[in-house]
Every structure is written in C-alpha cells, then in structure tokens.
C-alpha cells in the first residue's frame, strides 16, 4: 500500500463521519448503530438515503448540499477513495453526511427495517460475468428489502448498456413500478426536480460524456413482498476498450 493511502487511512480513523466495518471484522466487532443512525449520529428524524458504491463520495456530498433535510450515507469498501468525500463533508460542515466502509454484500447488517427510504447506485460496476455481484440483481434487491421502506426508491445512473439493459429486464420480469427510465439522460425532457438531482456529475461521468457516452437513468420502486426472479436472457457485453477505459473487475481488493 502506498504512503498516500496509509496516510489517508490513518486520517480517516479520526473522522467522526466515517464508520469502518469491512467483512473481515464485522463478526468480531458489533455494529451497535443499526436501527439508530438518526438517533445516535444524525440527531434528527430526517429520511436516510444511501449511495452504494460511492467511490470518492462526490454524489453523496453534493446530494447532501442540495437536500440539507435529508441524511445521506455513502457506502464503499475502497477507503482511500472514500477519504476524499469524507474530508470534503467535514470541510463543508455537512452534518447530514456519513460514510460507511464495508462490503456491500453485507449491507443489511448495518440498517434495520424501514430505516432507509432511497438507494442510489451511481456508475456501479456492471459485473458482466456474475449476476449475483450486480448491485441491481435480485440477490441485492432481497438484501435491500431488509431495511428499505416498502416501495422504497432505487435510483440507477450508469454509462453501461449492459447494466442498464439487465436492470430493465429485472424490473420488467418482477413487475416493479418504474417512475423514470431514460437512455439519454441529458437530452430527454425531464421535470425540473429530477434535473436538479441529476445535474450532479462525478469526475468520471464528465469524461464519459465528453467521449460521447450516453448516460442512462432509471428510478423504480421496490415492494417488500413477492418473490423476485432473475431474468433469463443474454445481453451484449459492454465494449470498454473503445473508450480507452480499463475493464472493471470485481476481483479488485478493498484498498
């Protein structure tokens, strides 16, 4: 691990807005704030919104600025990236932002029933080889239902044709209520409130737009009841190399 990463990890240990519970320690170190995020950390009764796979936390921080009466929690396993968002939130005196460094596969260990109202999935790894690792798979939807309010909102914002197409099939197969679905976010006519939220752009998103990639967005509800079924269909893979981007892999470690 580079010196820069070591310094960031050391500094994050001092951040009051960061909670670090990777899979390797969660069985031995209990997380007592499950079901008590508002009471113990945010000190209010405002709704809680998660960003899963938050990376540098750009979206989490900007959403918190737009909506001071909503509490936001960015979740990722990459600590050196998360440091950026956590630091910005502290410097901006944002009291409605927290970050949780953990594996998203165990996200239901940290939030209790009805504790979360919405989930953002911003530019998630499409995991083209493993459906169970896709953050819009029924594997994860079942986990989200452990803590998301009934008919809670899922937002997907992505550059990936593969992930967007897969999610559309997953939503269709399970008859999940769709509120917004667009394959060209910045050129379709959307209401002003939606445009306000979606105007936030991450660093990489700006680069992809410059390279001609359409940004896709879907907003749907997740009912708590009814069995969820995986779509059984083949989807064309994304061609990342055409945009000089390295292929993303789920085998990367949580550094």
Automatic annotation (TrEMBL):
Keyword Repressor: no
Xref: Pfam families: Methyltransf_4
Sites where the protein binds S-adenosyl-L-methionine: 51, 76, 103, 125
Protein residues bound to substrate: 129, 159, 202-205
EC number: 2.1.1.33
Catalytic activity: guanosine(46) in tRNA + S-adenosyl-L-methionine = N(7)-methylguanosine(46) in tRNA + S-adenosyl-L-homocysteine
CDD domains hit by this protein: AdoMet_MTases
Entry keyword set: Methyltransferase, S-adenosyl-L-methionine, Transferase, tRNA processing
Gene3D superfamilies xrefs: Vaccinia Virus protein VP39
Pathway assigned in UniProt: tRNA modification; N(7)-methylguanine-tRNA biosynthesis
Annotated transmembrane regions: none
Keyword tRNA processing: yes
InterPro entries on file: SAM-dependent_MTases_sf, tRNA_(Gua-N-7)_MeTrfase_Trmb, tRNA_methyltr_TrmB_bact
Annotated family: Belongs to the class I-like SAM-binding methyltransferase superfamily. TrmB family.
HAMAP family per UniProt: tRNA_methyltr_TrmB
Annotated function: Catalyzes the formation of N(7)-methylguanine at position 46 (m7G46) in tRNA.
Protein name: tRNA (guanine-N(7)-)-methyltransferase
Species this protein is from: Prevotella herbatica
UniProt lineage: Bacteria, Pseudomonadati, Bacteroidota, Bacteroidia, Bacteroidales
């Amino acid at each position: 691990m580079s010196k820069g990463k070591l310094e960031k990890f050391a500094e994050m240990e001092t951040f009051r807005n960061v909670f670090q519970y990777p899979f390797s320690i969660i069985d031995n170190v209990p997380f007592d704030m499950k079901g008590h995020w508002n009471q113990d950390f945010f000190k209010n009764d405002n709704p809680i919104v998660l960003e899963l796979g938050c990376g540098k936390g750009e979206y989490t921080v900007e959403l918190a600025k737009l909506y001071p009466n909503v509490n936001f929690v960015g979740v990722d396993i990459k600590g050196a990236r998360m440091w950026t968002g956590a630091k910005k939130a502290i410097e901006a005196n944002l009291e409605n932002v927290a970050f949780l460094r953990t594996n998203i596969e165990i996200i239901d260990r940290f939030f209790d029933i009805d504790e979360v109202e919405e989930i953002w999935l911003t530019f998630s790894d499409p995991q083209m080889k493993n459906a169970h690792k896709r953050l819009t798979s029924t594997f994860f939807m079942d986990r989200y239902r452990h803590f998301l309010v009934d008919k809670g909102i899922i937002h997907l914002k992505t550059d990936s044709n593969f992930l967007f197409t897969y999610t559309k099939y997953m939503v269709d197969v399970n008859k999940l209520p769709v509120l917004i679905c667009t394959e060209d976010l910045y050129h379709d006519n959307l209401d002003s409130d939606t445009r306000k939220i979606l105007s936030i752009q991450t660093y990489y998103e700006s680069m992809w737009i410059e390279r001609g990639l359409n940004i896709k967005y879907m907003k749907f509800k997740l009912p708590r009841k009814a069995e969820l079924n995986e779509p059984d269909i083949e989807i064309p893979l994304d061609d990342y190399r055409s945009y000089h981007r390295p292929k993303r892999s789920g085998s990367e470690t949580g550094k």
